[in-house]
Amino acid sequence: MSVAFLATLDLTAAPRTTRKRFVTDLREGWDEFRSRTWLWTITAVSAVFNFLYAAYQVLGPVVSQRSYGGAAAWATVATLGGVGSVAGGLLALRLRPRYPLRLAVSVSCLLPLPPLAFAAGLPIPAIAAVAACAGTGLIVFYSQFTTTLQRQVPERTLSRVSSYDWFASLAVYPVGLAVAGPVAAALGVHAVLWATGLIQLAAILSLLLVPSVRQLTDEVPADTQPGSTAVSA
User: Fold this and answer.
1) Dist. CA 43–CA 167, nearest whole Å
2) Is residue 78 part of a domain?
3) Nearest residue to 127 via CA among 70, 187, 189, 64
4) How many structural domains compose the chain?
5) Residue 79 within a domain
6) Is position 230 within any domain?
7) How do residues 105-135 score in pLDDT, each as one tens digit?
8) What is the pLDDT of residues 185-203, one digit of tens each?
9) CB–CB of 204/109 below 8 Å?
10) Which of 47, 104, 113, 229 has the fewest CB atoms in 10 Å of its CB?
């Protein structure tokens, strides 16, 4: 399906830029990344979220095995999460918010619900329902964030800026997978799940305190247009 959609894109050849040293490219990309408060704060919170999400991915199956009868329970939760993601994708096609990051952060408050539901011992149908809501929130967040990134970052540095965002957001995920078991063994599975959901929620809500996250509009700056050579502020 991805190939089919990509094949329909109308691409125009971009002019080649002057080759630069690798370190120079990295520095320019970093300057663009750190100059946007909304971007690096969302990336930082994403790193915290993904670190803790790894713990949920480890401990959710453990609780499913111990308290809900095994693999079928976890499969139900995971499947409904996928269904919610599909719904989120369809919803995202229709959304045209004036303040995209404000919406993205608001709906991402749904994401900590599954670990909190497991920690509270809710029945599997209820956990599956909140997993579906979380899946919807995830895709709506991601669509609004990536669209904003493409609108706000100059095309000439977009790939480098995206690389910093992806690296910082995901590099800690394997660490979370590695430490979830030992920490849960020391503190208790349910205690870690409570901490996971509550810290995730607090981190997400903290983004609403960032003025540029709340106030950034969907307007496209002139310096992000294809072929622009202006330097972004």
Assistant:
1) 9
2) yes
3) 64
4) 1
5) yes
6) no
7) 999 999 999 999 999 999 999 999 999 999 9
8) 999 999 999 999 999 999 9
9) yes
10) 229
Instruction: Determine the average pLDDT of the residues in 12-36.
Output: 82
CATH at residue 89: 1.20.1250.20
Contact indicator for 180, 192 with CB cutoff of 8 Å: yes
CB within 8 Å of 151: residues ≥ 6 apart: 218, 219, 220, 221, 224
d(CA 3, CA 89): 17
Pick from 120, 186, 119, 162: nearest CA to 32: 162
Query: Can you tell me the distance from the alpha carbon of 153 to that of 223, in angstroms, rounded to the nearest whole number?
Result: 8
- Predicted local confidence at residue 55, as pLDDT: 95
Q: Assign 37 a pLDDT band (cuts: 50, 70, 90).
A: very high
Q: Which two tokens stand for residue 86?
A: 């599909």
* 3-class secondary structure, 205: helix
Do 192 and 183 contact (CB within 8 A), yes or no? yes
Which letter does DSSP use for residue 68 in this model?
Answer: S
Q: Please, what is the end-to-end C-alpha distance for the chain in angstroms?
A: 38
The encoded tokens of residue 168 equal 């910082």
What range defines the domain where residue 144 resides? Answer: 28-219
For residues 91 and 83, what is the distance between their CA atoms, to the nearest angstrom?
A: 12
Mean pLDDT of the chain: 90
Dihedral angle at the C-alpha atoms of 73, 76, 77, 82, nearest 10 degrees? 160
Q: Is residue 175 part of a domain?
A: yes
